[in-house]
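Troubleshooting: if your tokenizer reports a length mismatch, compare your output against this known-good record of 123 residues.
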Amino acid sequence: MAGRVIDSVGDHPSGRSARLIAWTGTFKPPTPWDYFWLYASTGNWAAVEIELVDGKTVNVLFDNGSDVGLSPNPRQAFFDTEYLVRDDGELEVLQHHGIFIDCSEVVALRLEHLEAVIDSTAE
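Known-good structure output:
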């Protein structure tokens, strides 16, 4: 239910729902965080580079196997596909069952929509 309200507020940020939620003081939707992930979800795939406070970066695919907490939920994220960019520019998919990120440690997010479907069986 909350997701539908946020989607509605995102589509109509000056609408009645947005004003009502803002009036309650619960949160001021949608936040820049919400906008980023709502925009990321408009394509089939999105490559996201996540920069953490310790200077490390994490590269993930935002796809159907991903889940990100939008307002008012905690800023947490799960991605089932993480990858490295090798020195030769090739991508290497890390083999594990997913990565959880406490997004209070996130400094910056970079996004690129990918139009092509990635074939993980290609050699």
